[in-house]
Specification:
52% of the residues lie in helices and 7% in strands. With 368 residues, the protein is mainly alpha-helical. A 3-stranded antiparallel sheet has the order 1-2-3, covered by helices on one side. Helix 7 crosses helix 11. It starts with a strand and ends with a helix.
């Protein structure tokens, strides 16, 4: 038979969280419930006694478990299951680690989470980004609960996000930016502009083995994309020429380094530790190109909306366009299908042509 108790404070009074004592196979177990509410503590005690009575595993002393352990568990889970790209997840872990490392899991509650949100907002981080980080924190705690390392899941309230971004590139603006980039980056942004592929995870990761210039195709293997689906696209004449030139540049680099460079977009430095390694990003070059083209504020992700709009406007069936861009669900695809002022003007022109034709026919019928 177990019972609850509170430890004495320095002043001799009782207080703080409730502790429980129960028996497993005749051996006493003491554990902090992490709560000052008697009813919650009593439910935890009954759960422990019930588990011990039927031989189920009893959670270890969760008051000793810290955020760091659960973060390692989640990283391992992502790595072994492939549920999420670990490289992408690390971007979410970094701010969480800075704030929560060393903290006990029992101390992670709504109040502490609100403090985290406040710190991130004061750093100028958008609510949408904070929500993505909170999703990782929630997943971390749920996994801890499944592993019997968390007694209860705190309620984490998400923030109201801004309306979805509606930026996209018109062709002249895109070409102005592209012309201010070096040749290899011109190829990268043209792939993104044409097919709506993600720059960092789908374009810059391309290897020469994913290109078939003879067949005129570009391939993303299953498991390498955000939704894990493979993709194959046929190159436009412009892209086929540009990629062939980029492949030749990579071969020249291979000859210079005297070893095979497998990446379509290797690092531009051919000396030192980066020689022949994959290019990770080009944010600085992108910002400079946008500034020189007088389109400050455009982001690479705008290519996804641009490609969706261009494919649909070109008459490509929406299901085919969705496959090319890699949008798994129709709802997300529709969210990226943004109507531009140019689209509305073109609709007005077409409507004017129809109504003008109707007016002329009406007048002709009236005169006859």
């Amino acid at each position: 038979m177990g019972y609850l108790y509170q430890q004495k404070q320095r002043d001799g009074t009782k207080g703080g969280p409730w502790w429980l004592k129960y028996y497993v196979n005749g051996r006493p177990v003491r554990e902090s419930t992490g709560t000052r509410e008697y009813k919650k503590a009593l439910r935890i005690l009954k759960d422990r006694e019930g588990r011990a009575a039927v031989g189920l595993p009893v959670p270890r002393r969760v008051d000793r478990i810290r955020y760091d352990e659960l973060a390692d568990d989640l990283r391992r889970h992502y790595e072994t299951t492939g549920e999420r790209n670990l490289e992408e997840a690390e971007d979410r872990f970094k701010p969480l680690d800075r704030f929560f490392n060393g903290r006990r899991v029992v101390d992670i509650d709504g109040a502490l989470t609100s403090r985290y949100i406040q710190v991130r907002q004061q750093s100028g981080v958008a609510n949408g980004t904070i929500n993505r980080e909170l999703n990782v924190l929630s997943r971390l705690l749920r996994l801890g609960y499944e592993h019997n390392k968390v007694l209860r899941l705190p309620i984490i309230h998400k923030l109201k996000e801004a309306d979805p971004r509606k930026g996209f590139f018109e062709r002249d603006a895109f070409e102005a930016v592209r012309n201010n980039l070096r040749p290899d980056l011109q190829v990268a942004v043209t792939i993104a502009f044409t097919f709506g592929w993600r720059i960092q995870s789908e374009v810059l990761t391309l290897t020469l083995s994913q290109i078939d210039l003879e067949a005129g195709t570009l391939r993303l293997d299953p498991g390498t994309t955000k939704n894990d689906d493979g993709r194959i696209v046929y190159l436009t004449a412009e892209l086929q020429r540009m990629i062939a030139e980029q492949v030749e540049r990579v071969k020249q680099l291979s000859r210079k380094l005297q070893r095979v460079v497998p990446h379509l977009f290797p690092h531009p430095h051919c000396k030192g530790k980066y020689a022949g390694t994959r290019l990770q990003d080009f944010k600085t070059a992108w910002r400079s190109a946008c500034a020189d083209a007088n389109v400050v504020g455009m982001i690479r992700h705008d290519f996804r909306r641009t490609a969706v709009r261009n494919l649909v406007n070109a008459g490509v069936p929406e299901r085919v366009a969705q496959t090319i861009t890699g949008h798994r669900t129709r709802s997300i695809f529709d969210r990226y299908h943004i109507i531009s002022p140019a689209d509305l003007k073109e609709a007005a022109k077409r409507l004017a042509g129809i109504t003008t034709g109707i007016t002329a026919k009406t007048l002709e019928d009236g005169n006859s």
